[in-house]
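Input.
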Amino acid sequence: MQERFETFTVLINRIGRSIRKIKNQEMAEYHLRSAHVSCLYYIYSLKRATATDLCEHCEEDKATISRALDYLETNGYIIREHESAKRYKSPIRLTDKGTEAGRKIADKIDGVLETISGGLTEEERIAFYRSLSIVSDSLEAMSKSKEESL
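Output.
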């Protein structure tokens, strides 16, 4: 059982670390970090989003998304559509610079997914994602039940 736990946690940590490293390496020319990449990708994919939407899609906390959006706005990647609205609920869209970065990010993601799926059949890929979802949902439910008991 201990070996299963160690293998599981090591592999999950390695995957997360590799994803962050790839994001940071690929976007260094834009001076973007991992959280910036995720925000740009989802705004590009959704055409526009709010900070609340990004927290949900990126699975990041409010503070991380706020910092990322401040950086992206200051550096000309995004604009808020309604300055008078509450900042967190204000729709955000990409500038031309943000759209260019968003397109590059989407293309890179497609390439990465193609590469990592190359050794899997369609059935194996479907089973893998189904299993990963089950593990994720189970861990999330466990963490929530622990929070509620505190």
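The chain has six helices and two strands.
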